[in-house]
Amino acid sequence: MKNFDFVLSRSNQDIGQITWLCGGDNGNGLIKGDALAVSELNRAISLGIGESWRGRYPLPRRVIVRDPLNYVYEMVTVLEQAGFDMPDVLYPYTAKAQREQREKNMDSLPPNTTKCY
What we know:
The mean pLDDT is about 85. The chain is an alpha+beta fold. Strands 1-2-3 form a three-stranded antiparallel beta sheet. About 35% of the residues lie in helices and about 20% in strands.
């Protein structure tokens, strides 16, 4: 199980500290931290489940929000769709960061190489 510690915020206004134990395949994800931040995040998770939020990832990484959040892509989906700021520790897992990394890798191809998207 991996831990992620970050400040939950919206529009650069801090809400509170979150410690998320990413449950992975064990299915025992856990959110701890400041009461207000945990409450806001749990409210967003419930909304995401109720509205059947889906992640912004191409197949095979379609993300469906479930409780508890066990995977990084579930957390990223909740943060993005609920309008929270993306913490630096989770940014590398966003669709935007992955797209930037792919483009960077494509820019470093040897000359006379065809880019296939």
